[in-house]
Amino acid sequence: MADVSVRPAGPGDVTEISRIQVETWRQGYQDVLPAPVLAALDPAAIADGWRAAVASPPSPRHHVVIAQEGDWTVGFAAFSPDPDALDGDPGPESTAAISVLLVEPRWGRRGHGSRLLAAVADLASADGADRLIAWVPAADTSSLQFYRSAGWEADGVQRSLDTGAGSINELRLHASLGDPA
């Protein structure tokens, strides 16, 4: 059995996090993101953003976790209180939003995504959240299938993001944490 784990990201993980993001988006999001967006991805600039997220998160409820197999970093997830709560939504104190959950494609189908999702659920629950959400591009059928296989559902809310090179339509998925009763 492989040595697999999920742990909080540290400053030494930032280079791998940004590499995984760039490689995964370029390989797995060719049909999701416009080509100019993918071509413009700058690992150094992305690393700067992750460095801040890992080293000095805005609150104790902002988390970045990484998945490992042996000594290899194979994926990561980041989540925080819901920054975009809509009218009628539970507040950010009870909802955690996954901003990204990626597993490098060559490490796919080994349970890393499920382990990351379970770690997110555990940490968010410990932070007091009782609901998780994630915005997923409607064209990202792999991610939609992954979340749905874990029991997540679309809640009917959609949005369109302007990338500067085209629009991306996203669906909001959600899952309840803990006992619904």
From TrEMBL:
Matches recorded under InterPro entries: Acyl_CoA_acyltransferase (IPR016181), Bact_Acetyltransf (IPR050832), GNAT_dom (IPR000182)
Record key words, sorted: Acyltransferase, Transferase
Residue intervals of the N-acetyltransferase domain: 4-178
SUPFAM superfamilies in UniProt: Acyl-CoA N-acyltransferases (Nat) (SSF55729)
Pfam families for this protein: Acetyltransf_1
Protein name: GNAT family N-acetyltransferase
Organism of provenance: Jatrophihabitans telluris
